[in-house]
Write a structure and sequence with these properties.
- This protein is α/β, with parallel strands linked by helices and 406 residues long.
- It contains 16 helices and 10 strands.
- Strands 1-10-6-9-5-2-3-4 form an 8-stranded mixed β-sheet, with helices on both faces. A two-stranded antiparallel ribbon has the order 7-8.
- The longest helix is centred in the last third of the chain and has 28 residues.
């Protein structure tokens, strides 16, 4: 376990892993009446056939304190939606499936499109956005958590640890980010966080000067973790991006609206492994190349809002600073791997850094060419103002799909 020195900006809860899961769950059971808890699972249909999801459902079936589980299902035709209903029927908790490709939810999307508020990109961000809107429409949950659906080392402890800081009656947290040690199979993982985000944040500090927002991001042990929880008051007020910048975008919105004292991070797993994206060096619109470009742009947009002026010269300087810092980190990761008896291919690490350098420059070029790009989806307060019956439409669409399809 990590040490207990609280010398960072963000409150860090280290020791929950030392307690039996049954103790955590018993406390959460006591608090569920005052703070009903809803878990959101954004997934692709293909993940139901993957190596992780069957175990995730088996583990979730043991969780006693959840008020509801909301599943966002992407890339599924009607037959696959029927199979998904059967797949999740093992869950004893109340659960709903948002068939995002179905005609009823597409009709809701069309209504939002007519007022200029429909998500512009397919993907995880859009899936999460609709699931959170549905949770608001239900109106029962007071806390919501989200995690990915490709975690092959999944244990139900993750859910309890995510909800604990938000549900505890004497804690003051509005948002909680999960973190975990990114190593599995004798290898260091987490390439985007290790080799892009960490050195890029520090390079931006060097090039643009000290920045409170960058300090905030650098306080998180794993800012790209797909696991987080928050109060429902946060859900209605924040905007989230529809591209690969989801995790950084959410942190940016939380930083904009809440003081550091209302934000924490929690150690949620001793071991964590999930599906790994390809580097996609030859395809800028796929894999880690697309992800790293979107993440870089999310930083540039946020800093521009704070008054930082970018130019081609700034991006060339940033490229040089990032490259040197990233290579220095490769040395440290190599030493860390060696002392722990793990493998780390320095050549592949440096190839990844070189690819990320190209992505940073591509992101800079795209930002300069279209500084008005709006990847953020509207918050649900604005959507409700523009389409007052949108919650009823969401509820009706999901209810009719559940009743009539299959």
């Amino acid at each position: 376990m990590s040490d207990f020195f609280q010398n960072g900006r963000i409150g860090t809860l280290h020791n929950l892993g030392d307690r039996p899961i049954e103790e955590l769950e018993a406390e959460l059971m006591q608090w569920r009446q005052q703070k009903p808890m809803c878990l959101v699972l954004p997934c692709l249909y293909s993940e139901l056939e993957g190596p992780a999801m069957d175990n995730i459902v088996e583990e979730l079936a043991k969780v006693p304190f959840l008020d509801e589980i909301i599943i966002g299902l992407d890339r599924a035709d009607e037959e696959q939606y029927k199979k998904a209903k059967a797949f999740f029927s093992r869950l004893p908790q109340k659960h709903s499936i948002l068939w995002n490709d179905g005609p009823r939810l597409r009709a809701v999307d069309k209504i939002l499109e007519e007022v200029g508020l429909a998500p512009q990109q397919m993907g995880k961000g859009r899936n999460v956005w609709y699931c959170l809107g549905y949770a608001l429409a239900k109106g029962r949950a007071r806390a919501v958590a989200l995690h990915d659906c490709d975690i092959v080392t999944y244990k139900r402890d993750i859910v309890a640890k995510l909800f604990y800081p938000i549900a505890h009656p004497t804690f003051n947290y509005m948002f909680c980010k999960g973190y975990y040690y990114r190593a599995a199979g004798g290898k260091l993982n987490g390439r985007v966080s290790r080799l892009l985000v960490s050195p890029l944040v520090r390079a931006l500090q060097k090039v643009c000067g000290h920045n409170d927002y960058l300090d905030f991001i650098d306080s998180f042990r794993y800012p790209l973790a797909g696991e987080f929880s928050m109060s429902m008051d946060v859900v209605s007020s924040i905007r989230i991006p529809s591209d690969w910048g989801l995790e950084i975008g959410v942190l940016s919105e939380v930083n904009r609206r809440y003081s550091d004292e209302r934000v924490c991070q929690v150690d949620i797993a001793d071991a964590y492994d999930h599906k790994h994206q390809d580097l996609s060096a030859d395809n800028p619109d796929g894999g880690l190349s697309k992800m790293s470009t979107d993440i870089s742009k999310s930083f540039f947009r946020k800093l521009a809002i704070k008054g930082v002026v970018f130019s081609p010269e700034v991006f060339r300087t940033l490229k040089a600073s990032y490259y040197r810092l990233a290579l220095d980190l490769v040395d440290r990761y190599h030493n860390d791997a060696v002392i722990n008896g793990m493998a780390l291919d320095r050549n592949k690490e440096e190839e990844t850094v070189e690819q990320f350098t190209k992505c940073i420059m591509r992101a800079g070029e795209q930002f300069l060419n279209d500084p008005t790009e709006r990847p953020f989806m509207a918050n649900w307060s604005r959507v409700l103002s523009a389409v007052p019956d949108v919650y009823q439409r969401l509820l009706q669409a999901v209810e009719e799909d559940t009743r009539d399809v299959g």
